[in-house]
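Lab notes, practical 5.
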Amino acid sequence: MYDWAELRHFRYLLVILEKQGFRAAAEELHTSQPNLTVQARQFQENASVRLFRRMKNGRIRPTETGIAFIGLARLLLETRDEIIDALIAIERGEIGSVRFGCSPLVDPNLFRRLCTIHKELLPTCSIRPTHGDTGQLADEILAGSVDAAIVTLPLKHSDLHIEELRSDRLVVCLRRDNPVAAKFALQPDDLQNSPAVLYHPHRHPDAHVRLLELLAEAGINVQEYSHASHPSEMQTLVKEGHGFALIREGTSLDEELTTRPIIGVNWTVDTAVIYHRQRYPKTVPILVKKLKRQFNSDLKTTRTENASVGVQATVPIRSRPSQTPTRNPVQLALLGVETPSGDRSQLSGDK
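Output from the prediction step:
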């Protein structure tokens, strides 16, 4: 479709925009100004875009489209380098097997998709799965015993590359026969002093404390709660009448359970792929890009399908108070989420 566009066009124009001029760009690229002028003109004419304006002092200023071009061209050239690195590593026989990890609160279908994409990319490569909590998998990646993992956030470490995949709203999971389940959406008061089911605090102590703070900020005072060490246990305890739980919207539910949003809050669970910044199989960055692309495609399809049906109740995913809200990222691993469709996992509390 765009066979006229070559990588050199993106490299040339990126340097022109970054240097804000043709002379400096020509020196950087070791070519002539007339050549750059021709390349820039051809690209803009073929694409019907205007990437920059010339100023009186001879320098150039990126247009709005030009500003977007800078980020997109960097991504394209970065992907080019990653693809070549992957091909070289494959040719050298450096990727005979990979070790991929997954934390318990990550959608298992997302992890299976990660493995499937890598198998399609490199059919002869064996994949060795491993499971553990976010902190445990991060330590194993740093130690070199795991190559990459899908985990719930937050997680910070200067030696780890953390690529967020998606974000999902948290909703209340409760029994269908619970009186408040008759509502399309819950007020914080509906959960006041109700027993709850939380992911075991020892697995994520800081997140547990922050979660209770967010609940309190929303006016939900949880005095009693049960512990669960796996997402399936969360639903079992709710089903057995031990209280409500917070889970990812879209999670597959037991037939005796249902979910409802909470009006006036925005908490999300975020999921990311993590790997070492220096030591990693060279196929991993390509794998992550393909996974994100598939997720974005699935998300567009879902939104298109949802647009064709009526919505029973509208509850904003992001509340819009009169003042700019303060975002409070918190680890949502403690909430025990297990869903059949992707995720991004760190609790954001926007009240």
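Observations recorded by the TA: Residues 64-91 form the longest helix (28 residues). The first strand starts at residue 52 and ends at 54.
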